[in-house]
Amino acid sequence: MVTANDENLRRRASLELLRAEASDELAVLIHERLRGGEDPWDFMEDLPSVDELVVLTLRAENIAENGGVRPNKARNYRVLRQIALDYPALTRAVWRILGDEEPHRRWDASVRLDAS
């Protein structure tokens, strides 16, 4: 029998798997936007890196574990810091995300920034 704690430890042990999943997800995102007729020069720099996507996925898992309650600014900082401690290779991505005002919205394809 696999407990939630065992699953959590197994997930933490495989950063390579997390990166592979994020890479696949990013490829699908790019493919969908290209099929939608968007110019890659217009959107590629707005997409998260693979490591940023891994961090955002781990953050989303933490939110789900907390009953779906979005974290306030202080809790968000603690969650992201814990991700950096659990996965030292993701530290740079965590700090990039912490530097953004709204990292979960920056690359969202449904968000359109007003050009004015």
Label this structure with key terms.
116 residues, 7 helices, 66% helix, globular
The whole-angstrom Rg is: 15 Å
> How many runs of DSSP E, i.e. beta strands?
0
Structural class: mainly alpha
DSSP strand content? under 5%
Tally of alpha and pi helices: 7
Rough outline: globular
Percent of residues in helices: 55-70%
Largest sheet: none
Low-confidence segments: 103-116
What is the overall pLDDT average?
82
Order of secondary-structure elements: HHHHHHH
Q: Report, as a whole number of angstroms, the end-to-end distance.
A: 57 Å
Protein name: Tryptophan synthase subunit alpha
Organism: Microbacterium galbum
What does this protein look like?
With 116 residues, the protein is mainly α. The chain is 66% helix and 0% strand. The protein has 7 helices and no strands. It has helices spanning 4-12, 15-35, 40-43, 50-65, 73-86, 91-99, 103-106. α2 (15-35) crosses α4 and α5 (73-86) runs antiparallel to α6 (91-99). It is globular, with a radius of gyration of 15 Å. The relative contact order is 0.12. This is Tryptophan synthase subunit alpha.
What topology does this entry show?
Elements: H1 4-12, H2 15-35, H3 40-43, H4 50-65, H5 73-86, H6 91-99, H7 103-106
Helix pairs in contact: 2-4, 4-5, 5-6
Organism: Microbacterium galbum
Protein name: Tryptophan synthase subunit alpha
How would you briefly describe this protein structure?
This protein has seven helices and no strands. The chain has helices at residues 4-12, 15-35, 40-43, 50-65, 73-86, 91-99, 103-106.
